[in-house]
Design a protein that fits this description.
Length: 361
């Protein structure tokens, strides 16, 4: 599939959410010292309680997670399948978050004086009232810094012959997708291990007691399905997820063969290289069920609870498979000090004209 064909099948969602940090730089004169700048470094002083600001970064994280539920990272935003139903549901959720964000912002600005007074009334903070009040910004400044805006656009590929500026980003789309799925599947897999290593070790009674895992797995499946045009190795992975989910009982605990199949699938999905092998038809899933799953859980139980290990169980000889470590989030919940003016989402989706590589909103 050509880069232009890929671009014609995606929309791009850009999210720009910023917040006031709730603090100010701590100056040398605040603590009455005279040290050269080269040898002097201080942190920040809180002007209000940190928890008054945290809801804004929480909403920002939720917005990004919602985009990643159906899309993958792309040119500073998210590539979303150009499907009207998917886009309508996504923008509806983002708009709901924006309204929640604006309501919390209005409440903070309305109650700001009381919020400051409550903060200063705390015993540990009270001695520094003068320093805090001297550093308070204006409400207009705070309002300008706390912003939630998003935009959606299509990449116009019909009127240009070269997409060199985006070729590397397009080439990375599938890689990003596999990496994101591996991270999410790894979290599900580690959650399963953690719970079962705390419970039922004497019986080695391993099971998925909750259907939330199946629901989360279905979300990963839908994400892959929506972006399957990115790589020919994606459809076989989707088919394997469908086959596994279809084999699960509709009610009760997921144990025995059903649990082994589900856990083995998570082992595969937790490793982007194994996913690629599955997509290329080079991975024998039954081998993962028989070797990796059984040996891994037996090895974990032996290491963490050797006193309850049954005597008739032999030490496994196959290599242990561990889920890939969660990579550093490319979008950490940092808070920017400055933000652009608030803009509403455009009612009509604009086009990115790649002939001069500029956004035409």
């Amino acid at each position: 599939m050509t880069d232009i064909t890929v671009l014609n099948q995606i929309n791009v969602v850009s999210i720009d959410i910023s917040s006031w940090s709730g603090g100010a730089n701590l100056k040398k004169e605040d603590i009455g010292v005279d040290i050269p700048d080269r040898a002097f470094s201080l942190g920040r002083k809180y002007l209000i309680a940190p928890e008054r600001i945290s809801p804004f970064s929480t909403i920002r994280r939720r917005a990004r997670e919602r985009c990643l539920k159906v899309g993958t990272r792309f040119v500073g935003g998210f590539a979303i399948p150009a499907n009207q139903g998917v886009m309508d549901a996504l923008t509806a959720d983002l708009e709901e978050m924006r309204l929640e964000f604006e309501n919390k912002k209005a409440q903070l600005l309305r109650d700001f004086s009381r919020v400051v007074d409550e903060w200063i009334s705390e015993p540990e903070v009270a001695p520094y009232e003068e320093l805090i009040r001297a550093s308070l910004p204006s409400l207009k400044s705070i309002e300008r810094r706390i912003q939630f805006r998003y935009s959606t656009f299509q990449v116009g590929a019909a009127q240009f012959t070269s997409i060199a500026p985006l070729q590397s980003e397009v080439a990375e789309l599938a890689t990003n997708l596999f990496t994101e799925v591996a991270e999410d599947a790894g979290q599900l897999y580690r959650s399963f291990l953690d719970r079962n290593l705390r419970e039922g070790l004497e019986k080695l009674d391993w099971n998925f007691g909750s259907r939330k895992t199946v629901h989360a797995l279905t979300n990963l499946r839908n994400k892959l399905k929506g972006l399957e045009f990115l790589d020919s190795r994606i459809p076989p992975v989707v088919d394997e997820i469908d086959r596994t989910v279809k084999s699960l009982p509709e009610q009760g605990k997921l144990e025995g063969a059903a649990m082994r199949n589900l856990c083995s699938l998570l082992i595969i999905l937790s490793d982007d290289q194994r996913m690629l092998q599955l997509g290329e038809g080079l991975l024998n899933v039954s081998t993962v069920v028989q070797d990796e799953f059984g040996n891994l859980l037996q090895r974990q139980a032996t290491l963490l609870a050797p006193s309850v290990q049954p005597e008739d169980v032999k030490t496994p000889t196959a290599s242990e498979t561990t889920p890939s470590n969660e990579e550093e989030n490319e979008f950490p919940d940092v808070i920017w000090e400055e933000a652009a003016d608030m803009q509403s989402a455009p009612p009509v989706m604009p086009t990115l004209d790649m002939s001069n590589f500029t956004l035409d909103f």
